[in-house]
Design a protein that fits this description.
The chain is of the alpha/beta class. Strand 1, helix 1 and strand 2 form a beta-alpha-beta unit. The strands form 2 sheets. Strands 1, 2, 3, 4, 5 and 11 form a 6-stranded mixed β-sheet that branches. It has a 5-stranded mixed β-sheet with strand order 8-7-9-6-10. The protein contains 12 helices and 11 strands.
């Protein structure tokens, strides 16, 4: 089965064991494809991969074609996207100050973009790869940028400051963990749904018990090579929700969907 995920440390950490024969894959084998999360979202529109990482925003648009798995999700507290600008920028936490700003986002179908539209609709956004956002804001290509992944740990190195943490905003609005991404399987393969979910959960649990075994694999794909950043990233994004979404995780996804539909962002 084709298995697509991002190069981010949380994904490579979770999938390492099942791709390297360290857990029982119950007779299944997986061919990995590693791409930027927005590339995965767009490929899923064509149903390219059997199993794929998706932004929750993309998943909500593709539910007729993909079904969410219980394991492998990126969901939690204190891990949302952050809107940043240069230290000397005139843009600030007053939303009106952003009306004329050009804001770089990590993709149209990312959950970060969905949260930005929930926070303040109608902003002028430009899609680019997530690892080009901080340099672009630093160099004046963009007025502000919406950063995800390990960017939240390193943006001060680029001379940037926080305008708003959209994860904190979400938590204040809902009291729920922020659902950022999930692993989904194509609906024509639903007979494998539970089995694949178990394998991913076992792989994530193995990684948590044996964190050193996946280190070289993670570092070979990470955008930020600093060991401390990688450790922080994994500690933040791999948690109990990665082993199983459970009722709380599913409720968070449902609330995000309801908010987006009520505000006309999702059809």
């Amino acid at each position: 089965m084709t298995l697509a995920f991002s190069p981010c440390p949380n994904d490579t950490f979770i999938f390492h064991a099942m791709l390297h024969g360290l857990v029982d894959t119950e007779g299944l084998s997986f061919n990995p494809y590693i791409h930027d999360v927005e590339d995965l979202n767009r490929n899923a529109c064509e149903g390219r991969f059997h199993i794929t990482k998706l932004s929750i925003h993309a998943y909500l648009l593709l539910q007729n074609n993909y079904c969410m798995l219980d394991a492998g999700a990126a969901l939690g507290f204190g891990c949302g996207p952050v809107l940043v600008a240069r230290e000397d920028s005139v843009f600030n936490q007053k939303r009106d100050s952003l009306k004329d700003a050009v804001i770089a986002i990590p993709g149209e179908y990312t959950t970060a973009h969905l949260l930005l539209k929930l926070w303040f609709p109608g902003l002028h956004t430009v899609s680019t790869r997530f690892n080009a956002i901080m340099p672009g804001v630093r160099d004046g290509v963009y007025d502000a940028g919406l950063i995800i992944h390990e960017g939240r740990f390193v943006y001060p190195r680029y001379g940037l400051r926080k305008i708003v943490d959209l994860g904190e905003w979400w938590e204040q609005e809902t009291g729920m963990p922020i659902p950022l991404g999930c692993i989904a399987i194509r609906r024509d393969l639903m007979e494998h749904h539970e089995r694949v979910g178990r394998i991913i959960s076992e792989s994530a649990a193995f990684a948590q018990r044996n964190p050193g075994q996946s280190r070289s694999y993670i570092c070979s794909h990470a955008q930020e090579m600093d060991d401390a950043v990688i450790r922080e990233h994994i500690a933040l994004y791999v948690n109990d929700f990665s082993l199983s979404l459970g009722e709380e995780g599913m409720k968070a996804v449902i609330i995000l969907e309801e908010m987006a539909r009520c505000r006309g962002i999702l059809p």
